[in-house]
Design goal:
The structure is a homodimer. The first copy, chain A, is α+β, with helices and mostly antiparallel strands and about 220 residues long. Helix content of chain A is about 55%, strand content about 5%. In chain A, α1 packs parallel to α3. The radius of gyration of chain A is 17 Å and the shape is globular. At the A-B interface, α3, α4, α5 and α6 of A face α3, α4, α5 and α6 of B.
Chain lengths: ~220, ~220
């Protein structure tokens, strides 16, 4: 498999975690979003959406991270991202899709660019916007996690929810969002970041991160 | 089942279509987004996300439309929204999730309100924004549909893709987007609008639409 991605793209980060959790090998192909490489003809010929991540797998170029994750779990059912029971699957998806649609989407790089270019948004305004959509979803997710009595993970082991949550927690840290009001989220973050599958997927450890200094020594 | 929704909310419209296609009865409970009823305590006690649609079904209050649709298809497998084959399921989800995350999300009413309140966006600027995100996703979807040689529907009968597409085509018409460049989308729209399942789900035919004049006569 080939994963076309960008180190700081939270949707690319989702796929890296998921592939690691499922123990599926992949080659990582960096696509530079800052120079708009994803809008170039070479790339849009592969992916008309002009987005990352793109997963080249089983003879097909696959766009859209949530569709990729659902597909991975159906095509490679070992080490599932979604639990077995229909109700548990709903629980995971409700929280994962809340992040995918209500937080990630308005905070996407393309949206932020539009705000700067068409509304003259300052960096302060961007930061406020960014934290607004994070808080707006983290607060009800925290409420749901409290209702569910969640431990280190939503279920016994990390899956679809953690795959989608951790990249947003990374963004929350970058944008200096205070997570003290969301202790369940902070606890899940700590538990996941202790796992090698999440560590290897982290933006700090990607070759296209300008601050990347090579694989960590054992 | 009870569906809490708003006539013009495109995610509520998704659920109405899906429930009709699956021939599942439901009571429709209008929630007035214009007066922010969804932010009131009575409603957020049911749905901490403060969003529509909310599906009360099988003893549980379920938020997040994409999770609701996936759940409906697992809990009520008759008249499936997703096809059988893993590859076909990916095809449907890639296109459906593109709309859910890249078009619907930035054009959500909450985002438009934020643009007006914090960036002083004029109605012209809102309209341009709105059409921008529609076009940005409709164009690659049209490319995919052309690649797939799509007919009246993505597959033999309408399913997840059409459930998510039609509400956005309705929005496109409201915002005067020219659909002549996307003939596959326009053809799917015409085929779906001819079906009673889509007609009954249409915003024009909901009791909370101020212009609603009662059920159509036979």
């Amino acid at each position: 498999m080939k994963l076309f991605g960008y180190y700081r793209s939270s949707t690319s980060y989702r796929l890296r975690i998921a592939l690691n959790l499922k123990q599926l090998d992949y080659d990582y192909v960096p696509v530079n979003l800052v120079t708009s490489e994803q809008k170039g003809e070479a790339y849009t010929a592969r992916n008309p959406f002009g987005s990352v991540p793109l997963l080249e797998a089983d003879g097909r170029e696959r766009a859209q991270s949530m569709a990729q994750l659902e597909w991975l779990d159906e095509a490679y059912p070992e080490r599932p991202l979604l639990p077995d029971g229909i109700e548990q699957r709903f629980t995971a998806r409700e929280l994962a899709y809340a992040i995918a649609t209500e937080t990630h989407a308005p905070n996407n790089l393309q949206v932020l660019k539009y705000l700067k270019e068409h509304f003259g948004a300052s960096q302060d305004q961007i930061d406020t916007w960014y934290r607004h959509w994070l808080t707006r979803t983290f607060t009800p997710i925290e409420a749901r996690l409290a209702q569910l009595g969640t431990g280190d993970y939503l279920f016994d082991q990390p899956g679809l929810f953690e795959v989608v949550l951790l990249p947003q927690v990374y963004n929350a840290r970058r944008f200096a969002l205070d997570l003290s009001a969301t202790p369940h989220i902070a606890r899940i973050e700590a538990a996941c970041l202790a796992l090698p599958e999440f560590q290897r997927a982290h933006p700090d450890n990607q070759p296209d991160n300008p601050e990347f200094s090579g694989p960590e020594k054992d």
